[in-house]
Amino acid sequence: MRLGTALSWLALCGAGACFVDSTGEGGGAPKDTTSVFLSGGFGQGGSPSGGGGAGGSTVSGIGGAGACGDGAPSVGEECDDGNVAPGDGCDQACQAEPTEDCPATAVAFLGQLGEAVDISGNTAGASDTLRLGDGGSCKSDGPDQWLAVQMLVSGTVEAHLVVKSGFGGNHDKAVLHVRRGCQPDLYEDELACLATNGSTPGEAELAFFARAGETIYFAVDGSGAGDDGTYDLVAKLGSVCGDGNVGGIEQCDDQTAACSGCMRVDLACGGGLGNGTHDTVSGHCYVASEGSPVDFWAARERCFRAGGDVFSLDPNDGMLPVHVGDVWVGLADFATVDMLDEFRWLGSGGVGTLTTMDDPSNALRCVNRTPAAQLFDRACDQAHGFLCEITLDNP
After folding, report:
1. What is the value of pTM for the model shown?
2. Which of 54, 80, 96, 185 yields a CA-CA distance of 20 to 30 A from 60?
3. CB neighbours of 12 closer than 8 A, spacing ≥ 6?
């Protein structure tokens, strides 16, 4: 598929952010690509008085006709949160609006195989909303811009960031954050963080699985103070679960006894991380990786790439994995200002009880599980194996 950027429309945007094309029919873009340009000169929503750092505007939905407030985004609606109340990120006309907690006002929908959103952005002049980097997490101390992608179907999202100019002399100081939520200061929202200093300087890419109804947030950032520049970010739907075709990171797609949703129900459910154990109650797959110890952030990213997250205790889980070694699990205390030792499971938000606890009360702490099934708090930048809970499209 050819990805269009509709560059001929850029002159119409001026210094601020603008919506370029909701159908892919303008500016030479193909019909399965939506293009939008983000400019850092303005704040949220392209308004000179806007706060935050989105610096951009919105692309339109893919769904058919529907009423605003029915909870189903449709053509002409930038969002639909199931109500018509303003002030909650989606206003009474189902248009995205800035909130204090969410700098992402550029919203795109993915609902058809091969569909893509192409963002051409410039972080110069944008706000610095993401200021993470403690405890070994990904550095993020430059101006940033945000994109929210709402999933109308379940499938594989393929994201590719390419630096066009700036972000250091070798274009190696850009960072692509992939987050479950849009509150910039929440470490628990960080699913993956990729810098452009890898084998191909100036580029970063990953594929992951997202479910229908989920909103995934992308943030393009810089790894050093003042690092900014221009970039292209493409988010493409590389597979759709349930269409009978195995694609992306799907393990299967035939709806038979050997395939539940898009995940196998045998040892191969481990998603390339090793042999997994499928739980028929939750429909999830558990797989432990102990061969190459990594820090907590890298562990979570590897689980995310495989189609899930680090294991997080949930009341709906049936069989719990017992015979595993020294592994990270999804239990952490990321609240560094409350002076409390309160560890919560990332999946359910439930409070976890540790075997021992020796952390300073205002530091990021993550939890590893021992072969004896004991839970210990650790500095998040230590190296351990990890236990993934792979979900793909299973309930």
Report:
1. 0.80
2. 185
3. 18
